[in-house]
């Protein structure tokens, strides 16, 4: 797997959302992207998965230029996106939601379905339950499970911890680590919870009003005085 964004510009009408963003995810890495509300984090993930057409710049995945390519083709190439706010299909069951995740695959693989249920046993217990009736944490697990059903090489996670209690976030992040290790899936995770995201990831980037302002080893970022002040809170 190789993945690199170079000099990406995205605008909504005349408003610049991303300015000259460059970022890389290497084979097997968990990379985090942190930033405040409105920094452009979701815009970046939506550009990668083909939901937004960038104005300028390149996104190369496995040596193929994917900037501006249709979303279903990008999923088929091996990038899955678990969106902000989970977006599960509320009136479908858990099992049906998972099947929707594999729609791009020509050949469905039972082992993938088994892996998802093994990773998230709660989903196995609730296969016939409507997704809209799941708790927030369960819906997040379903959203990630649905993304895994497409057998990605690169998984994009948009604020998985949003609205979850700290103890559930902790559990979820350890499962994300497990997915990364067990299936060698590279992960780009967007978070406002900078502390938890830096702990989980190997490297990180900070996005501030559409621009990357810091990047580096997560341990170094955790100890950076600038980050402590703006993103990590007192006592970090
Ligand atoms: N469809 C849209 N049309 C116009 N402007 C948009 C659109 N989507 C996002 N924006 C603007 O682009 C900027 C970046 O938004 P984005 O959702 O990418 O931020 P974010 O970092 O994901 O924020 P949050 O942490 O709140 O999810 C914001 O100023 C937002 O208002
Ligand atoms: Mg967002």
Comma- or semicolon-separated keywords:
binds magnesium ion, Rossmann fold, alpha/beta, 6-stranded mixed sheet, 38% helix, globular, binds adenosine-5'-triphosphate, 236 residues, 4-stranded antiparallel sheet, 10 helices
- Could you say which overall geometry the principal axes of the C-alpha atoms support? globular
Radius of gyration: 17 Å
CATH topology: Rossmann fold
What number of structural domains do the residues give? Answer: 1
Q: Which distinct ligands sit in these coordinates? A: adenosine-5'-triphosphate, magnesium ion
Number of strands: 10
Output the strand order for the largest sheet.
6-7-8-3-9-10
How would you sum up this structure, described in words?
With 236 residues, this protein is of the alpha/beta class. It has one domain (27-53, 69-232): P-loop containing nucleotide triphosphate hydrolases (Rossmann fold, 3-Layer(aba) Sandwich), CATH 3.40.50.300. 38% of the residues lie in helices and 27% in strands. It contains ten helices and ten strands. The protein has helices at residues 41-48, 71-77, 94-101, 110-119, 121-125, 136-148, 166-183, 194-200, 218-222, 225-232; strands at 2-12, 15-26, 30-34, 56-61, 64-65, 79-82, 154-158, 186-191, 203-208, 211-217. Strands 6-7-8-3-9-10 form a six-stranded mixed sheet, sandwiched between helices. It has a four-stranded antiparallel sheet with strand order 2-1-4-5, with helices on one face. A hairpin with a 2-residue loop joins strand 4 (56-61) and strand 5. The mean pLDDT is 94. It binds adenosine-5'-triphosphate and magnesium ion. Magnesium ion is lined by residues 41-42, 84. Residues 12, 15, 17, 35, 37-43, 84, 192 line the site of adenosine-5'-triphosphate (ATP).
């Amino acid at each position: 797997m190789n993945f690199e964004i170079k000099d990406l510009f995205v605008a909504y009408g005349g408003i610049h959302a991303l300015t000259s963003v460059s970022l890389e995810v290497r084979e097997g890495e968990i990379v985090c992207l942190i930033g405040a509300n409105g920094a452009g984090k979701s815009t970046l993930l939506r550009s990668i998965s083909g939901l937004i057409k960038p104005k300028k710049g390149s996104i190369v995945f496995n040596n193929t230029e994917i900037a501006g390519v249709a979303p279903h083709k990008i999923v088929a190439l091996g990038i899955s996106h678990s969106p902000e706010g989970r977006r599960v299909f509320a009136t479908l069951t858990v099992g049906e939601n998972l099947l929707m995740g594999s729609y791009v695959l020509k050949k469905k693989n039972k082992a993938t379905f088994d892996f998802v249920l093994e990773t998230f046993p709660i989903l196995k217990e609730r296969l016939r339950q409507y997704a809209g009736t799941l708790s927030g944490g369960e819906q997040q697990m379903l959203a990630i499970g649905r993304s895994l059903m497409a057998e990605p090489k690169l998984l994009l996670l948009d604020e998985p911890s949003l609205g979850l209690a700290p103890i559930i976030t902790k559990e979820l992040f350890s499962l994300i680590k497990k997915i990364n290790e067990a299936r060698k899936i590279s992960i780009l995770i967007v978070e406002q919870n900078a502390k938890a995201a830096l702990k989980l990831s190997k490297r990180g980037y900070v996005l501030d009003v559409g621009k990357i302002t810091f990047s580096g080893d997560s341990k170094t970022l955790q100890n950076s005085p600038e980050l402590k002040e703006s993103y990590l809170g007192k006592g970090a």
